Amino acid sequence: MPGGQLITKGETELDACLAVFAAAPRAGAPLCDIDGTISPIVAHPGEAAVSQPFREVLAALTERLGLVVFATGRSLEAGRRMIPLDGAAYVGTHGLELMTPGGQPLTEPQAERYVAEIEKAAEAAARDLDCDARRAACALAAVTAETPRPVIEDADVLVRATPGVYEALTRLLAAVGG
């Protein structure tokens, strides 16, 4: 990656971590946050994307490591759409949803008891707004999603947005024989 060393803090810890992964790659399991880490923060969250350079490195890591996990505050399915890799695990909705590689999505059992109440609230909002419940829930989500955020103007190559993360991942890939 151009520009010299990008990891300015924690270099010793990163080197130690890479050595552990190199010694036993199939025992390793990095956890990658999606929003703002492997994809840029953008004005409209629906426009956020994981760039091709990140996709390639993460796909190679998924093949070489024991497990790669992607975490997001978005729904599990939205996270999977952003970085769809067979063999990866996903954590969505701030930890309420989980999917192991090749598994079915699971919802945290403690959260299940609130699903009916949330559906009732969406239906009540739909009546008040004179629309269907799905539109009412989507309207609430859209209002939340449209909250202004810092924007990375040139997000076509995410590497520029989070170069230290990209450097760490490429060094990990090199450490495990990629």
Describe the structure.
The structure is a single chain. With 178 residues, the chain is an alpha/beta fold. It has a domain at 11-108 and 150-175: HAD superfamily/HAD-like (Rossmann fold, 3-Layer(aba) Sandwich), CATH 3.40.50. The protein has helices spanning 11-23, 52-64, 76-82, 109-129, 133-145, 163-175, and strands at residues 31-33, 69-71, 89-92, 97-99, 106-107. Strands 1-2-3-4-5 form a 5-stranded mixed β-sheet. Helix 1 (11-23) runs parallel beside helix 6 (163-175), helix 2 (52-64) packs parallel to helix 6 (163-175) and helix 4 packs across helix 5. The radius of gyration is 19 Å and the shape is elongated. The relative contact order is 0.19. The model is unreliable at 1-7 and 138-161 (pLDDT under 50).
Topology overview:
Layout lengths: L10 H13 L7 E3 L18 H13 L4 E3 L4 H7 L6 E4 L4 E3 L6 E2 L1 H21 L3 H13 L17 H13 L3
Parallel strand pairs: 1-2, 2-3
Antiparallel strand pairs: 3-4, 4-5
Are there runs of 5+ residues with pLDDT below 50, and where?
Answer: 1-7, 138-161
What do we call the CATH homologous superfamily of the domain at 11-108 and 150-175? Answer: HAD superfamily/HAD-like
Q: Number of DSSP helices?
A: 6
Q: Kindly state the percentage of residues in helix.
A: 40-55%
The quaternary organization reads as single chain
State the end-to-end distance: 15 Å
Please describe the structure with a list of short key phrases separated by commas or semicolons.
Rossmann fold, alpha/beta, five-stranded mixed β-sheet, 6 helices, 178 residues, disordered N terminus
